[in-house]
Amino acid sequence: MRSGKDTSLTFYGRLHHQVIVLVVMFSVLLLASGAIQLGRSVDAATPTSQTDHSGITTQWLSQQTQIWKPTTNSSINFQVLFSRASYGDLEYSYNNMSVQLADLSMIVSTGAGCVRVDINYAPWLQNNQTEINELTTLISQIRADGKCLVIADSASESYRNGGQISWTQFQAAWIQRDRTLAQLYHPDYFIVVKEPGWYVSLVSDSRTNPSFQSASSWLNLTQTLASTVLSVSPNTKVGVSVAADSLSAQPSFYTPFITGLYGQSNISFVGYDVYDVTGFTNTQNFLDQNGNGGKNVWIAEAWDGGGNFIYDSSQAQLDQQWMLVLYYFAEHIHASAVMPFYTDLFSSYNLTNTYPTDPAQIISLYGQQTPVYSEFKAIVAASPLTSTSSTSSTNTTSQSTHTSSSSQTITSTTSSSNTVSTTSSTSPPPPVTGKLPRLSILLVIALIIVIVVAVSVGLLLTRRRQT
Length: 467
What we know:
48% helix; 2 domains; TIM Barrel; 8-stranded parallel β-barrel; two-stranded antiparallel ribbon
């Protein structure tokens, strides 16, 4: 009997031992998995070389900082785009007046001197007086907030998706459009041409009409547009912007076009729209080779890329670093104005022009701030700022220049008291969401298994002593 009992205990003891080994191995795997997730979480929280499709990386930005960082700060007119009032955004029903005012309040809070509106002319073509009145109210609010007004021509959304018209018709409509807007709103600045290539999809014969491809044709049109605007709003400063990455792609058009503008007395500034590394390089090379022709240089639009990927919140730290380097570049090329384009990202990476569609949610998101907002606001606050405002119906322009010590230079956003910081631009890593809670669960499960194994081993040893 005893030998039988001993045999049974030996068999079950070995089986129990094997089970324990398997359980311990499983616990080790769980712990290893938790360690891997922890490592990934840390990596996600502290990116070392963020990048986007524009070719802009943290390494490139650090490199350009060494090249472009100024020793003194000059006066720059900082501008912001009023996104919800531009292009076709007014046509969305969820962009009601409360949403519009929330957007305006956010961009005004940056301290920028000017607000830009890329006006969609469709309401005038369609006799939509409701939208015209709404836009007029918003522009009045811009004035009430003490900001100067920049209008950029953005044609009419009605010309898209089958509504194109011929180049001859388009030019005639363009002249009338700019006359109407200048006479109605008397902007401080009017960008009468927003990137020649931007209009390609709006003109039915843009790819076949030699006149559309001709720099001299565009120069004649620009001269007519500028004269038209000044005839009804004589205090408005008129300018043109170009896509900077096109300077090297189509030099046979852009070089004679821009240098031709240098000879037009009605043109006050030429803007360069910079969205990638090529844009930065092209702008500097063009100015080095051709000068500015006595015209003010603007960075009329800028962001570190374009497309849907810009709404990825993992871009937050890269955007923040880019904003500071953009300012350094503006100083380097002696730009007199700078405007970041995707200003909704000042509040949230969840804000697009088509999502969300709940007004209350949109307004709530406009109450938030991202690192790039803080960076821009600090740059504006610390830089000697030349601001222009128009407060009368005759567009009387007043300017005030704030100067600072020549030993001061903007380097970061860590100060919240409108002072210049001398530390490097750093911020805590973004919070890690979703990974650490799962790690905690894994560790708890592994700990429970270890306890169960320990108890089992204790019971087994006790039974064997009893026998």
